[in-house]
Amino acid sequence: MNFLKTSFYSGIGTAVSLALRLITNKVMAVYLSTDGMFLLGQLKDFLKISNVINHAGTLNGTISYTAKHKDDPSELKRIWGTGFLIHVVCSALLMAVIALFSDRLSVYLFGTSEYATIVTVLGFSMLTISLQLLIMSVLNGLKRIKLYITIQIIAAILSSVIVVFLIIEYGIEGALWAFAIGQVLSFLVAAAALMVVKPFAFQHFFSGFDKIAFQQLLKYSVMAVAGPLCLVAATFFIRSFLATEFDRQHAGSWEGMWRLSAMYLLFLTTTFKFYLIPTFSELEGKSLKQEVFKVWRFILPVVILIAVVLYMLRDWVINLFLAEDFYLIGVLIGFHLLGDIIKINSWVLGNILIAKAKTKVFVAFQVEWAIVFTALTLILCKNYGFVGVSMAYFGAYIVHFTLMNLYFRKLIWSKHT
Question: pTM for the whole thing?
């Protein structure tokens, strides 16, 4: 399936997900305000790290090897069986750690121990999150995009209904409970769909441990851990810095800007997830170069157009999708949108590193981005105020994209590729 067809099918699911995100973000903004958004940002970063640990970062490996061996049942058994055991063991360990340190985690994340029970429940939901991600990775590798999107839509609708209801009824505590319940429902939907369409898959999941498959999957682990870890470390530090340097309203507004950005980029990032890693895994040399430029030619005008429209309608967008409390986003949005344009093009090159298992290079680029973003934020906020964090975001991606192009200069820019 080519990039445009993949974009079309993923666009259907993305449109539904985007509409639901707009509704839930609006409810969060109205009922929780900037302070609540700050706390949810802390939880979001915690879940990002947890969601990597609970599968040891093997999802991209599962996608890649499933795509390569989709017609070889014996290979699928090795990969899926080993992947299943990795997910179960890692999730069990994570659940135990979260349960033991729930009080400390609650204080660290939210500044109070009153949410310790919810943190414990979130810990026990890690197994369902992990297995749901495994199922979705298998479907992605098999290129069962329509089924993948159907599961995604059903799970998103159920989760959104729960989020909206619990936030309206119970405020921030309801939002935290909604995260845990939503993850369990997502797993049940994915498992039911796979059982109906691919019943043999569950037999493969119980086919046992394979040492070679384990080593193959671990090649992707470091990359999968490095990306979210660097992102979370940078955003967690910067959010805390903004809350200290300015106040929680500024930190919550910055979190709101990230959520707006994630919503409008969802269409492209979802397509990337379906298309780039399986496709780049199969291509080399000139064919790979042509594919990169084909993707760039499609996404660059799209993201520029969206960015221009959002900037022109920024006040209306902020009031419609968030709330008046988030007016400070107007200070950030210009440089942040410029950063998004560079970021989305950087991600295309980053997916080559993932598809080709270039672990050391990928990790180096992730660390570089986090350090540059954090350093620029500290410098620019001191000199230019709150807008400095947005300027830093733009500057960090300029540096990141430039360095990636230098690394890929022979593949991308050489006439003799």
Answer: 0.72
